[in-house]
Design brief:
The protein is an alpha/beta fold. It is built from 10 helices and 15 strands. About 30% of the residues lie in helices and about 25% in strands. An 8-stranded mixed β-sheet has the order 10-11-7-12-6-13-14-15, with helices on both faces.
Length: about 350
């Protein structure tokens, strides 16, 4: 085994944010040492706290072990930056890019599977249809769905350095909304295996390095549950408050309670602008006046009353919602019952401001 063989193996390690070019092509291999049965590879990064550093070091180690079984592998990292002039105020990673955003609102749920992302995407489109300037940041870094639901899969956002100093990412624009998702920087189906801190860093870049410009609303589609990412969001992003999404069943009460208690916790203390009851009833597309309460009736109203928050939306189950999510055309673009429900939800939310 020699360095050339190792370099050949490392050509398998692709960078998901660089059009899947290998770390060899990107000249990220700073050094390779062979000490008996031990291989030490040093990867060079251009900036501190690169959100993909842990992913790439793990992939590098796995590639060597896979090709050279029994080898002891160590992967180190170094940061190689050119000498730079003293930073000007506002150019560091901070809140500069969201200074012209009026309201930042989290769309949250106590558990997965309640259609939170569907509600977030359609709420953003509905607000835009009402004439508001809207953006949506997909904060579900482990399961980003915005590219699929908006028909923007395969789009790679433009990124550039401003004044040779700060990297800025341009959001993807469609349906009158500015979209940003970690899904734009990964291949479809690619698993992003990140520990909590790395996911939080990536998320902050997805929000704080994006050129949002002037917005009335920036919605953040939060991951389900209550964990590191939620804490990072409310502490590092000036989140104004949240909307909770649930389904009508009585069993959903416990999950709503988790979401409500998280935002009402003393360390977070953010207002909840309302509860959205998703899958409130089933309406056949050919019989829009019919309602079948397959998950129970008035569950959302009971939840809202129990926790002292307004019920601001009831979204029916209509086949077109699923079809629109799969085809990349949000239901809120239509004048069907589902589209009108999202418009009404947007109106109710906007009344808070």
């Amino acid at each position: 085994m020699d360095q050339n063989e190792i370099i050949k193996v490392l050509k398998e390690v692709q960078h998901p944010a660089k059009s899947d070019r290998s770390i060899v092509e990107l000249e990220m291999i700073d050094n390779i040492e062979i000490k008996g049965d031990k291989i030490i590879v040093t990867l060079a990064f251009s900036r501190h706290r690169d959100p993909l550093a842990e992913y790439l070091t793990g992939s590098t180690r796995a590639a060597i072990i896979r090709n050279f079984p029994g080898t002891d592998v160590e992967v180190k990292t170094v940061v190689k930056e050119e000498a730079k002039p003293k930073k000007k105020p506002g150019l560091d990673l901070g809140t500069e890019e969201i200074k012209n955003v009026k309201h930042i609102i989290g769309i949250a749920s106590g558990k997965g599977g309640v259609g939170k992302s569907t509600v977030a995407v359609n709420l953003a489109v509905a607000l835009a249809r009402l004439g508001y300037k809207v953006g949506l940041a997909d904060a579900d870094v482990y399961g980003p769905s915005v590219p699929k639901m908006t028909g923007t899969e395969g789009v790679i956002p433009e990124a550039f350095k401003e004044n040779d100093e700060k990297e800025v990412i341009m959001p993807v624009e469609k349906y009158g909304v500015k979209w940003m998702s970690i899904g734009y920087f990964a291949q479809p189906g690619q698993a992003l295996i990140w520990r909590g801190p790395m996911a939080c860093n990536a998320l902050k870049q997805m929000i704080l390095q994006v050129r949002w410009e002037e917005l009335d609303f920036l919605l953040i589609d939060m991951p389900p549950g209550t964990g590191d990412i939620h804490i990072s969001l409310v502490h590092d992003i000036p989140l104004e408050g949240a909307v909770i999404v649930s389904t009508p069943q009585d069993v959903a009460l416990a999950d709503v309670e988790k979401g409500v208690n998280m935002f009402r916790n003393e360390s977070i203390n953010k207002p909840i602008f309302g509860l959205v009851e998703n899958m409130a009833w089933f309406t056949p597309e050919e019989l829009p006046e019919n309602r079948y309460y397959i998950f129970g009736k008035d569950g959302g109203a009971k939840m809202a009353a129990q926790y002292g928050i307004p019920l601001i939306g009831q979204i029916p189950i209509v086949q077109s919602i699923r079809e629109g999510g799969d085809s990349g055309e949000p239901a809120a673009m239509s004048s069907r019952p589902d589209g009108l429900a999202f418009i009404e939800l947007a109106k109710r939310l906007a009344e808070n401001f």
